[in-house]
Amino acid sequence: MSKGHIFLSTILMLTTSVFAQATERATWLWKKGGDPLGAKAMVTTQSTQQTLIDLLQQQAISDVYGSYGQYTQTHTQAVAQWNQTLAAQGIQSHYLMAQNTWVFPNNHSKMLSKLQTRFIDYQHHAAPDAEFTALHLDIEPHALSEWKQGTALSRQALLWQLIDTFKAIRAQLDNQGMAQLKLYADIPTWYDSSTNIDWPDQGAAFFAVLSEVLDGISIMAYERDNSASILNATVTERALASPTFSVRLGVDVSETWQNPAHLNRVISELEAEQQHIDIHDATDYYYWLQAH
Hints:
The protein has helices spanning 3-22, 39-44, 49-58, 71-74, 76-88, 108-125, 145-148, 152-175, 204-213, 227-233, 235-238, 260-272, 282-291, and strands spanning 25-29, 61-66, 92-97, 134-137, 182-188, 216-220, 246-252, 276-280. It is α/β, with parallel strands linked by helices. 34% of the residues are buried.
């Protein structure tokens, strides 16, 4: 092969790689009670699985953050089959754990017990194609009354407790032979806010440690209806991105968007800036698209 052909092939491969990276999308999947398209139904009712699979394929979604709770214990085989179904479609399945009060140190013991029985034990016994590919955390101290009634200093303390919570989970995974398993978490756009938190260093120390204990974050950039606003609100967080730390931008399917064309335009603009997008959430997304 000539040098010219080698150069052209290299450029094409790089272009393809950048495009694939930029269009990688993910979505949250919550239990949603008795909803036929919620996480619970995906495990317990196979007849509705294809509807959601079709949505994931149509919207180029490659990762699902699923809230399956204790079903990994009570419906182990069904969870395994769902993970295998996703894997067969080239979709990665993340196990989603969410409990805001885990931020308090006195709740860590209960948290780690659930982590062991609901996630680690499942992983140890699952077939390779039935394993979860990552653990995703949705722990939001800003939703607690202690935050809402607190001061800037007490909010800083809560965020450092959040770091300690992530560290405790990471240590448990490492101690159980899962040092290679990726750990991700959700955060809002404003943990660097001087108004709400008044960091002495604009949050530099907090974000530095965050990027050391986690493998990536999903930034909940909700209620923003244009790409410029989303990018502007996430400058600090996006600066953390590296070969070992990913930063994803979350958009919520809500009244923020005039219609699917509006949402799709903003997603395309963000992806043109090499941003990875998370859509909140899969079930609501399906119904929203059907209504428009």
